[in-house]
Design brief:
The protein is α/β, with parallel strands linked by helices. Helices cover 24% and strands 23% of the residues. The strands form five sheets. A nine-stranded mixed β-sheet has the order 16-15-14-13-12-11-9-8-20.
Length: 364
């Protein structure tokens, strides 16, 4: 048996094929691996005829962010979230803006180490209301994320998944059993985009969205990065937002974010601000109650409004809360209409700060 380092752990979502290869059953990519081979995500490997996770307990860094940066606008607004990621990804998005992490093939980038208990202790002592699994997709560090979430729950700290939603049904059920909120990237609304630009498929993502919304208590928000000429047509945005209202309901917030040239799409121009405003208008016209613009300065598109009377419920300027007109039980203070989300009697006051932290300070 191969000697393993402390960061390599056994997993359970795999099976052996007739030809001796081992198939990973975590995501719909179904990587079929010979001995020693790694999947496209890079962090899951065929070792001793089983699939192992090779980055358990390792991270590319830890940082306290505003929860609105995930982005989550209806989950404990104004509060700080302890964020971390590992390396690798099970998609191959040509526009990836975290490509140095998600496409890393060098585990020496993972310079920080922390057990689930240390992360939970740090979040509690740093007064973070939640921990976010982000920067790269937590699906690929499934076992580590779940263990961290369990440790966090024991200390009253919630868990947030920032994910593309590309995961198989059985591991999906296990994963979301331990999550409290999720922001899922709905990258486009055509199979052509998913296949050619992300190296994946649309249908499994839509299945994940419906599962989260209808089969779990996880608070769900969506983000779509609008790329000029690729997924920003009025027809596609109309179809996408109609699907969201019909299949998920009008209360699922949608975030439309601006693309900036990166990685393998340096030849595509940045997204004009007006494109995001137009997408938000289409979404609201089709019945989405809460639609937002992202990555551009647009206070109107950052803020939350009552879908009944139009009152500003949560004013925002970037990540700073400027107004709060929700009652203690999460209703419009003007007309009494409930605002969908997970709210407390008063908002947090973390603001726009981004604070890197060293978790070794919390090891006992």
């Amino acid at each position: 048996m191969t000697e393993r380092d402390p960061f390599t752990v056994s997993t359970k979502y795999w099976h052996t094929l007739d030809d001796g290869r081992v198939q990973c059953d975590l995501c719909p990519r179904f990587c079929k691996l010979h001995a020693g081979q790694r999947g496209l995500c890079f962090v899951r490997q065929n070792l001793d005829n089983e699939i192992v996770l090779t980055t358990y307990g390792r991270s590319s860094g830890y940082c306290i962010d505003p929860i609105e940066k995930k982005p989550l606008n209806h989950f404990l607004p104004g509060t700080p979230v302890l964020s971390f990621g590992t390396a690798g990804c099970n998609l191959a998005c040509k526009f990836c803006q975290n490509w140095d992490i998600s496409k890393s093939r060098e585990t020496h980038r993972l310079t920080d180490e922390a057990s689930p208990e240390v992360i939970a202790r740090a979040a509690q002592k740093l007064n973070c209301r939640s921990v976010a699994y982000t920067y790269n997709d937590p699906v690929i560090f499934h076992e580590y994320a779940i263990d961290v979430a369990q440790a966090c729950h024991e200390k009253g700290v919630k868990s947030v998944a920032v994910t593309a939603g590309y995961v198989c049904p059985e591991p999906r059920r296990e994963f979301y059993r331990y999550m409290d909120a999720a922001n899922v990237d709905l990258k486009a609304f055509t199979e052509d985009f998913y296949h050619k630009i992300t190296g994946s498929h649309l249908a499994p993502v839509l299945e994940t969205l419906e599962y989260i919304q209808h089969e779990t208590d996880v608070w769900l928000e969506l983000t779509t990065l609008l790329i000029p000429g690729k997924n920003d047509s009025e027809k596609e945005l109309d179809e996408m937002t109609r699907w969201v209202v019909e299949k998920l309901g009008p209360d699922v917030p949608m975030h439309f974010s601006a693309f900036h040239p990166d990685w393998k799409m340096m030849d595509v121009p940045p997204t004009p601000k007006q494109t995001l405003i137009r997408a938000r208008e289409i979404a609201m016209r089709n019945g989405v109650h809460y639609a937002y613009t992202g990555n551009v300065h647009n206070a109107a598109g950052d803020s939350t409004y009552c879908h009944h009377c139009g009152e500003t419920l949560i004013g925002r300027d970037w990540y700073v809360l400027t107004d709060w007109k929700l009652t203690a039980d999460g209703k419009c203070a003007t007309c009494g209409t409930p605002c969908a989300g997970v709210f407390e009697a008063s908002p947090g006051h973390w603001g726009a700060r981004r604070q890197p932290v060293q978790l070794r300070d919390f090891v006992t």
